[in-house]
Design a protein that fits this description.
Layout: H1 8-18, H2 39-46, H3 50-58, H4 66-75, H5 80-91, H6 107-115, E1 120-124, E2 129-132, H7 134-139, H8 153-159, H9 161-166, H10 170-187, H11 195-204, H12 206-214, E3 223-230, E4 234-245, E5 248-258, H13 261-272
Length: 274
């Protein structure tokens, strides 16, 4: 079958195949008619039939299964964006969410946080806080003083009496937090990862247990206003916005901008004093 009659999926697979270095995979680097791996080598690495892989490149044989695509993604060493693109070409939709825990952030991203004069932090899809700046430590929580395993927003919401007292209407906020958390972890495919946390909080907090059993789900709220009773600043209002971290789908950056200029100035002074 001529190359120009192949499907977009077939053309994409062929393009990625020809970019791979045979020697790096232990295949002979002798004379080859075309660059990259041979089709049978990709099939071998992907644990599928060479004929089936050839048909995929040529646009024959019908639609592949998700399992076959995942094997090919592994065989071709596709990045996560490339794997998602492959699914879009094959099925018209991205792959089912597959959660990968965050392993921290880059120094460059931390410097971005530190350059902000307002509170900002980065959390995972399971609401673990992995980075924050000095203004966040002053206005929200000093996560540096919190053990790593305790740096989870949901856990602190239901186990920290000081955080509960800081909320003007704690129960309403808690209800929304639980509903948003449920949606986030489901969207990220992380339901298994948070099972131990849910079991723990259901056992230690009657309020959480009741809210979790309600099975409420809230949509993503990218921005809003957070009202807190701060021990030094009094009652403060913070406008918050949530942003995705490019290239890190498991992370969100949350930025809190004080509504009152005088509060913003005071937070900057306190953060500078740290």
């Amino acid at each position: 079958m001529p190359q120009d009659s192949a499907t977009p999926l077939g053309k994409f697979l062929r393009d990625r195949r020809t970019r791979l270095d045979p020697a790096s995979f232990g295949f002979g680097s002798g004379r080859r008619r075309t660059p990259g791996l041979r089709r049978e080598e990709v099939a071998q690495r992907s644990n599928i039939s060479p004929t089936w892989y050839t048909w995929l490149e040529q646009g024959r044989g019908g639609a592949p299964s998700a399992d076959v695509l995942d094997r090919i993604a592994s065989g071709l060493m596709l990045t996560e964006p490339e794997r998602e693109h492959m699914y879009m070409l094959a099925f018209g939709h991205p792959p089912e969410a597959r959660y990968r825990g965050a392993e921290g952030i880059t120094p460059r991203l931390q410097r971005v946080l530190d350059a902000m004069p307002v509170p900002a932090m980065i959390r995972t899809a399971t609401w673990d806080v992995v980075a924050w700046n000095a203004a966040a430590a002053v206005a929200l929580t000093d996560y540096g003083a919190v053990p790593v395993e305790q740096r989870n927003i949901l856990r602190r919401m239901f186990s920290d009496s000081r955080l509960q007292a800081a909320q003007e209407d704690w129960l309403s906020v808690a209800r929304y937090v639980v509903a948003s958390f449920r949606a986030d972890v489901t969207r990220a495919g992380a339901s298994q990862e948070i099972s131990a946390l849910v079991e723990e909080l259901s056992r230690t907090s009657a309020e959480f247990d009741a809210l979790w059993r309600d099975n409420d789900v809230a949509g993503q709220q990218g921005d809003g206003v957070k009202r807190l009773r701060h021990p030094e600043l009094g009652t403060i209002e913070l406008e918050f916005s949530t942003f995705a971290v490019e290239g890190r789908p498991e992370l969100n950056m949350m930025i809190y901008n004080p509504v009152a200029p005088e509060v913003a100035a005071r937070i900057r002074e306190m953060a500078a004093g740290r």
